[in-house]
Write a structure and sequence with these properties.
Elements lengths: L1 H22 L19 E7 L6 E7 L6 E5 L12 E5 L2 E9 L5 E10 L2 E9 L4 E9 L2
Antiparallel strand pairs: 1-2, 1-8, 2-3, 3-4, 4-5, 5-6, 6-7, 7-8
Amino acid sequence: MNQNLNRFLGFSIFIMLFLVSLTSCTDEENPFDLTDDRDVFLGTWNVDETCTRDAYSVSIEKDPSNSSQVIINNFWLIGYQEKPPYAIVAGSSITIPKQAICDDGSNLVSGSGTLNKDKITWSYTVNDGADLYTCSAVYEKP
């Protein structure tokens, strides 16, 4: 009987350690967590825009301060050194809430887009203080 009790206790401890090891990993330890909607939006994108801008590229990265947001560097060809807009990602939708961009806050932007495979189709407005631009753009992976 004592031998059966030892086997039972040993087996119970093994099961508990196994269960603890399954739950000890966090999302921060796994950079390839496929449950983060933002992952498919990340990287460099080639931009074709209808406003008075030339073709250019942007870089989208995770916003380290918010787990549902991304940062769009060089949005509207403002330059990589300027303050970029943030956008909220939910599934295949991306939304830029109304906000001031550029270091001097001179441009107000807002808009939304939809991701389909390796293409984001955008509609947004930019108010530079003198003019209101209504733009459409397509972002594609190079």
